Structure formats: C-alpha cells, structure tokens
Amino acid sequence: MPREWDGIISQHINRKFSRPIARFLAKFPIITPNHVSILSFLVALISGLAFFLRHPIMGGILAQLSSILDGADGDLAALTNRISPFGGFLDTVLDRYADAAILSGMIVSLFFTDGINAVYIIIVGITALIGSLLVSYSAAHAKSKLGLTFSKGFAAYAASRDVRLFLIMLGGILNQIFITLLVLAILTNTTVLVRIWTTRNLKVS
Q1: Residue 100 burial class via C-beta count within 10 angstroms: exposed 0-12, middle 13-18, buried 19 and up
Q2: pTM for this structure?
Q3: Exposed/middle/buried for 96, CB within 10 Å: 0-12, 13-18, 19+?
Q4: pLDDT, mean of residues 95-105
Q5: If we measure between CA atoms, which residue out of 161, 174, 114 comes closest to residue 134?
Q6: DSSP for the chain?
Q7: Rounded to an integer, what distance in angstroms lies between the CA atom of residue 115 and that of residue 151?
Q8: Long-range contacts at 153-159 (CB < 8 A, ≥ 24 apart)
Q9: Among 26, 40, 52, 82, which is most buried by a count of CB atoms within 10 Å?
Q10: CB-based contact 26:79 (threshold 8 Å)
Q11: 115-153 burial string, b = 16+ CB within 10 Å, else e?
C-alpha cells in the first residue's frame, strides 16, 4: 500500500525497490533508518558532483538512486518499528541539502556548456533551486500553521520530491540539463503559487 505522503513516482516506481531494500536491511539490526537517510544524502552529494564534473548520465542515475533510498529509510523505520521524530527531522533536513547539492552541480555544469548565456543559467538555475526548496517549505508551514495538508491534485503531486528527482534522472540521461532546470523552475514555482492560492481561499472561507 502507498503511504499517504507518497508521490506518483514513489507509488509506482520507487516503492518497488525501496521496500525490498528495507526488508534486506532489516536483517541487520545494526543498520538504522538514520543510517539509510545519511546514505541517501551521500548518494545525492555524489550525484551533484557527477553533474559538476559533466557526467550527466551518472548524475541522473544517482539522483534517482538517492530518491529510492530516501523511501527505504521510512520503509525500514516502519518495518522495524523505529519511527522517531528525530529521524523524520533528520531526513527532512538532509533532503534539503541533497536537493541543493544536486541542483548546484547541474547549474555549475552549464557554465561549461557552449551556447547558453550565463545570465539565463543563473536565472533559471536559481529559480529552480528556490522553487524546489519552497515546495517543501510551503507544505510544512501550511500544515503547521493552518493544519492544511496537500494530499491530492496538482498542489500535492506535480512537484513532489520524487517527481523532481525523476525528472533530473531523465534530464541527465538525455543530457538536457538546462531544459530540466527550466521545467523544474516552472513546475515548482507554479506549485507554490497554487498552494498560496489554496491557503488564501482556506483563510477566506
């Protein structure tokens, strides 16, 4: 069964891998969900480095592997009854650092690509980075301050982390880094605007 916070990619792809990984890791009590969270973060850092070194295919594949491992930590926690507030907090914080590392590697790699104006790279890259961080930030604060959870429709699924990392994988494999950042910039910031509109209507009603 999908978890209530699962995105589309997690439901249909990632969980098919993360759950077997979690079942395997559960055989080794010394391995905790926090260890898997840290491993996911380290894989994301290597993904960003791969993009930085202009190995986009490797960067993309590692970004998706990081996404799968990001689900495995929660699966392992549920399977071994080791769900903890700190574990959720650590996972969330590391995810934000991971996203920044991957996107930064992609942005920097574009400065070594012919035919793309540096101004466009900066504008699109920074917009994608800010939008990606605000997707998570807007969800967290809507829940904490308004009790609102985005659980369906465009606001919930369009720019969820699993979708973003899957798009990064496709962009890396196709070596279309600028287009991927452009898509992420549009998708993430549109999602945030939709969430702002949704919360505004909630407050008015």
Answers
A1: middle
A2: 0.93
A3: middle
A4: 97
A5: 161
A6: ---TT--HHIIIIIHHHHHHHHHHHTT-TT--HHHHHHHHHHHHHHHHHHHHTT-HHHHHHHHHHHHHHHHHHHHHHHHTT---HHHHHHHHHHHHHHHHHHHHHHHHHHTTSTT--HHHHHHHHHHHHHHHHHHHHHHHHHHHHH-----SSHHHHTT-HHHHHHHHHHHHHHT-HHHHHHHHHHHHHHHHHHHHHHHHHHHH-
A7: 41
A8: 154/191, 154/194, 155/191, 155/194, 155/195, 155/198, 156/7, 157/7, 157/8, 158/187, 158/190, 158/191, 159/131, 159/132, 159/135, 159/184, 159/187, 159/188, 159/190, 159/191
A9: 40
A10: yes
A11: eeeeeebeebbebbbbbbbbbbebbeebeeeeebebeee
State pLDDT tens for residues 125-182. 999 999 999 999 998 888 787 788 887 888 888 899 999 999 999 999 999 999 999 9
